[in-house]
Amino acid sequence: MKTFFISVITLLISVISANIMLAQIPDGYYDSATGLEGNELKNALHDIIDNHTELDYDDLWDVLKESDEDPNNSNNFILIYTGRSISKSSSYPDWNREHVWAKSHGDFDTDPPAGTDAHHIRPADVSVNSDRGSLDFDNGGTQHDEATECYYDSDSWEPRDAVKGDIARMMFYMAVRYEGDDTSYDLELLDYTPTSGEYFGKLSTLLQWNEDDPVDDFERHRNEVVYSYQHNRNPFVDHPEWVNCIWANDCSSGIYEARSNNPSSNIKIFPDPAISELNIKNNLTISSIKISNVTGQTVLNANNINNINYNLNIANLTKGIYFLIIKNNNGTYNVKKFVKR
């Protein structure tokens, strides 16, 4: 009986935690973007996040210490490219303010709104920041001697794996926030390097980084802190599935787009709640399976299944609520909700 009650409590905590995470997005914040795709979605998001409260450039010294706080030591904060944790009492030249969308790609310098927009400004090691300069983002190059998980060449910079998705979603934010209607610059992403002017690359690499490095608690915390100052959010932290919906013509991912189109399909999933394995039984041949979390972020893929039954290893998923998106060989798909315990 004690074990049963512990299990129930654990399940309730998972559900409550998921609801709290969703509740951080203000009610109705994205209502005008719901159900839109492509450029219509991009335009709607722009209208939601533009005209934010502008910060002074000096404000960023304090804002970044809070937004990039070390989750393991509240007295420290994290530098983006090396991952070093340094004391909040530190100041220049121990670190400086890195414009992830380089200032020269738009000629906005340190002037608001883009030059002081904390959604793309991160604390960095001064020397590493200097070497990154205004390089585009892409994979490959020579290992950096200080930021040893980063690589670079004459026209691109590859950051460490742990922040690739963060950087991609910052770049997508900038391309939506700054459309030229309230600034002299209209920022856009292109699929090549090197770029100049108001452009940045490499789009296909950023799309892949968004998939490979999903949103984590550090990034969610950062979004909340910046929102508390600027009163606008990075929509691609809240809804990373919208990245592909705008730039890759793929609106099929995420719980907001994935709806069953074959409700007559006889699918059973068990156990639910599940701990390490999810058993799936279908009356149709399964082509592929995708799992999304409550924010629409894809956390697991299984392809080329070609069977009516499948056992899915979910041991590495964190506790919480998930959506199972099952694609059948006849092109139909079904969505099932389950709890990972």
Structure commentary:
The protein is α+β, with helices and mostly antiparallel strands. It folds into two domains: 1-27 and 252-341, Immunoglobulin-like (Sandwich); 35-247, no CATH class. 29% of the residues lie in helices and 24% in strands. It contains nine helices and 17 strands. The chain has helices spanning 2-23, 38-49, 60-67, 126-132, 164-177, 203-212, 217-230, 235-238, 241-247, and strands at 69-70, 73-78, 85-87, 96-99, 121-124, 136-137, 142-143, 151-152, 156-158, 188-190, 199-201, 268-270, 277-293, 298-302, 307-313, 320-328, 333-340. Strands 12, 13, 14, 15, 16 and 17 form a six-stranded antiparallel sheet that branches. Strands 6-9-8-7 form a four-stranded mixed sheet, with no helix packed on it. Strand 16 and strand 17 (333-340) form a beta hairpin. Helix 2 (38-49) packs across helix 9 (241-247) and helix 5 crosses helix 6. The longest helix has 22 residues, at 2-23. The chain is globular. It starts with a helix and ends with a strand. Mean pLDDT is 88; it is low at 1-23 and 254-259.
